[in-house]
Structure formats: structure tokens, C-alpha cells
Amino acid sequence: MADESPLETTTNQAEQEMKKKDIWEKARDLVYYAGVSTAATMFGLLTAGALAPMIGGALAIGGMVGGAIKRKSLYEIATTAMKEYSALNIVIYPMIWLGNVTYPILTQIGHYGAAALGATTGVGQAVGGVVARTGYALTAYSGAFVGAFGAAEHMVGNYMNPKGLWKSVSHNFVNRWKQVSLLMAPALSLTANYVHNLAIGIGNYSVSLPTFAVNAAPFSAAMKIWPPGEKKNEKAPAQNPYGMPSPAPA
After folding, report:
1. 162 burial class (0-12, 13-18, 19+ CB within 10 angstroms)?
2. Considering the entire predicted model, what is its pTM?
3. Are 127 and 117 in contact (CB under 8 A)?
4. Nearest to residue 61, comparing CAs of 80, 87, 75?
5. Which parts of the chain sit beneath pLDDT 50?
6. Cα 233 from chain centroid?
7. What is the rounded distance in angstroms from the CA atom of residue 243 to the CA atom of residue 179?
8. Rounded to an integer, what distance in angstroms lies between the CA atom of residue 78 and that of residue 34?
């Protein structure tokens, strides 16, 4: 067997060095994401209570299932789950605040709209409020969260470096917005009308879970399996976040 040439030896050494560097970078990323996830959990608990990690956990679990179905690497599945979990915990309180401020306004707009159309009873005005809140939740509110979540996910995924933030958030925004509004329509519609928890029966037992947590897992899995469409030959930026709206309590 002939000895390796100097060129082959140099190439093998370079490949080994690249593998070592890759392992080190992945280990560093995992430690970083674990730390950010811990800090984000504390922030979510302090600002939104147990709601934040419950919805974030459901989002992460669904994404892991979808990633596994798409045969992603364990490293990619783990880092993506921690990144999205952290982003959700960071932005859920601002979205709760937004809902608390805007949903009552939409209720009044719905009442006035119903009255303008001839509704004179409380039932007619209540229907107007439901229509106004639901329409808002499926459009402007959902879009606001897609942007906010995308920004948070970009920051987490880039070691808190804002470089490229606008490009990351705006990339494929409309398609992500439409898919989020479609797949999260049940939770968006229910929470917009103050149904914040669902009773889930398991055998002889029943447990109450946040409405968004129930919807978040299948939503996240579907987003991984069928990602929002992109234009042909369009290159995605380093971060390609999407968002999931959070509930606004009554």
C-alpha cells in the first residue's frame, strides 16, 4: 500500500480540523440556546405567568415532531425548538397587552357597525362585536405577531445581533402571515372572543389548557412539514422566522 502524498495528508488534516471546529460550534450553540431558553422562561413567567412556557412548550414540541417528519438533524431540531420557545416567551406579554388595548375598541366598533346596519337589540350588537374582533384577530393582530415573533427569533438566532433584522422579518412575510392566520384560526377566533382555556377530556379526567397551547403544537408541526411558500429562486436569509399569535386575556 502506497504512502499518502503530502497533498492527501494536508487535505485529511484540514478535514479533521473542520470537523473539530464544527463540533465545537454546535456545542457552543446548544449551550447558548439552553441559556437563552432558561432566561426566556423566567421572563415569560414574570410577565405572563405559566401561560408563556405552556404555549412556548407546545410550539416547540410541535416543531420537533414536524422536524423529525422532515428528517432534520437532531441538532437542527433542538436548536430550532429552543429558539422558537425563547422567542415566544419574549413576545407573549407585549401581544397580551396589545390584545387588552385593542379588543375592547374593536368591540365598540362592532357595536356601532351593527347599529348602523339596523341592529337594535343587544344580541345584534354582540354579534357585531364578535365579527369585528374575529376579523381583526385574523388580520392585523396576527400580522403584528408574525413581525414581533420574527424579530425576537432573529435576535435569539443571531446571538442578539440586530444585523439583518429587517431583511429577516420581511422575508416571505405575506405568505407566513397568511399561513399563520389560517392554521391558527381556531385559537385566534376563540381568544379574540375571550375563550382563553379549553377543557380537554382524558379518560375520566378533564384538564383545562390554554387555547393557544392546544392549537400551537399541530400548528408548529404543520409549519415545519409544509413551510410557507416562497418565490422561485428566492434565497432565504440566515434566519427565516415565523410567528404564532398569543392570546389576550379578558
Report:
1. exposed
2. 0.83
3. no
4. 80
5. 1, 7, 232-236, 238-250
6. 25
7. 10
8. 10
